[in-house]
Amino acid sequence: MKTTRNVLFALLLLGSVTGVASASTSVAAGIHIGPSGHTSVDLGFFYDNLAPYGNWVQRPSYGWVWTPAAVATSWHPYEYGHWVWTDQGWVWISDEPYGWATYHYGRWYDDPDIGWAWVPGDEWGPSWVSWQAGADYVGWAPLPPGVSVSVGFGGGYGGYAYGIAPASYVFVPERDFLSPRIASYAVPYARVNTFWGQTRNFTNYRFSGGRVFNQGIPVDQVQRFAGRRVPQYQVADLGGTDFKRFRGGAHIQGNRLAIFRPQVQKAARVAPPIQRPAARRAVVSAAQFKAAHPQRVALAQRQQTLARQERQQIRQQRAETRGGAPALNTRNTRNKALQQRQAQNLRQQEKLQQRQTRVDQKQARVDNQRVRVNQAQQRQAQSFRQQQKVQQRQARIDQRQARVDRQRVQIDRAQQRQAQAARQQQKAAAQQQRQARAERQQFQAGRQQQRPPERAQQRQAMQQQRAAQRQGGGGGGRGQGGHGPAQGGNGGHHGHNRPPGQ
């Protein structure tokens, strides 16, 4: 019996330990913690968590890609946020809620049908960009899918590193490179071509100990044109349940940069977005996306056309350089034609940028109007709720007053009934008194009727005697007046003792 109890206790203990282990393995939906304490996810975590912020579109070249929905027409990746220097190089800290994924995993490319699109990946990096600097400007652009960054590019001036066109770069003045709001200092894309030929590529990635290092622009160079020392932060893991508390999934505290960077399970089989309940609502086709964002797609297509024209011009220049020394006139003619095309392209870009600026301004005004309308509606709703509360409070007051009035009416009626009852009681008491007096009178009358006749005779004799005394006192002297009463008294006395009937 004791052995059985021990076995049951051991089984219960084992079950409780297993339950604790399983509970610690899955902290949140899709996030798992391994034995070493590192968080891990699969691609489905990207599908589900990015769905509220954009759309999933299936493309023939890269499969399922994601593109943000609520952004400006001229939006670029790696524009809304800032750079920090860490023990793993330059890390991009995004101001966008989806930045923890789209700027540290996978790659971006400019799709001809939907514009900027993100291809999910399974390797975390401080950022995945191509660096370009020169002419007092610093710029960066997303690295396209499939590009290897195992060695630095080190391209010459004005070259197209990794096939990325100038319009894909975000440039800022050197003095504003460390600004916490990069987008406020971004150079208009139409101006990039004016100094692009004076810039060179600084892309430099390094891999060591299973970590990625983004060297990019040398930090010493940044400190020279910034005029101050650049602080260095230590990259650390941010807890799996805390990444949504901080915008972009990163948090700086002291000299520590805590950032959400879970390991992505490469061998895991994951259902595509169309088969996932949380991501299915964000799945659209390329045609549906173009219909919903026509201006954004049109801008992307125009920029791609200009980029192709610029690349053709550069290839022609290189071919002419390699082909020896053609006729001077032909070269000059081609150079003039090329310059004219470049000037025309620049004017087109400037017009496009101006048009886009006007569109953005109109959109900003529309957004501001919507915000004001929403605020007015909220104020109206709040006022309506307050009016309802006042009406409800007044209705309760009226109800209480009605109850008080009804109680007063009931009290008045009760008092009236009490007064009426008192009057009736008084009337009854008066009637009873009258009846009592009538009864006494009847009783006295009855007693008088029952008295013997001699009593009446005696009273009559006494009345006669008194009358005689009064008469005698008036006609005789003082002595006679004295005997008269005596005789009358005696006569009365003897008459009193006389038997009745004599």
Characterization of this structure:
The protein has 502 residues and is of the alpha+beta class. It contains 11 helices and 19 strands. It has helices spanning 2-25, 43-50, 99-102, 189-195, 219-226, 277-280, 286-292, 294-322, 328-450, 453-475, 478-497, and strands spanning 26-28, 31-33, 39-41, 54-59, 63-68, 81-86, 89-94, 107-111, 115-119, 129-134, 137-142, 170-173, 200-201, 205-208, 211-214, 232-237, 250-253, 256-259, 263-264. The strands form 6 sheets. The protein has a 5-stranded mixed sheet with strand order 7-6-16-18-17, with no helix packed on it. A hairpin with a 2-residue loop joins β10 and β11. α4 runs antiparallel to α9. 24% of the residues are buried.
In a few lines, what is going on in this structure?
The protein is an alpha+beta fold and 502 residues long. Helices cover 51% and strands 17% of the residues. The chain has a five-stranded mixed sheet with strand order 7-6-16-18-17, with no helix packed on it.
Give a quick account of the main beta sheet: strands, pairing sense, barrel closure.
Answer: 5 strands, mixed
Terminus-to-terminus distance: 137 Å
Radius of gyration over alpha carbons?
A: 58 Å
**Secondary structural class:** alpha+beta
Q: Specify the number of helices.
A: 11
Summed over residues and divided by their number, the pLDDT gives a mean of 80
Question: What general form does the structure show?
Answer: rod-shaped
Helical fraction equals 40-55%
Sequence stretches where pLDDT stays below 50 over 5 or more residues: 1-27, 151-158, 476-502
Strand order of the largest sheet: 7-6-16-18-17
Give me the strand/helix succession: HEEEHEEEEHEEEEEHEEEHEEEEHHHHHH
Strand content: 15-25%
Q: Please provide the count of β strands.
A: 19
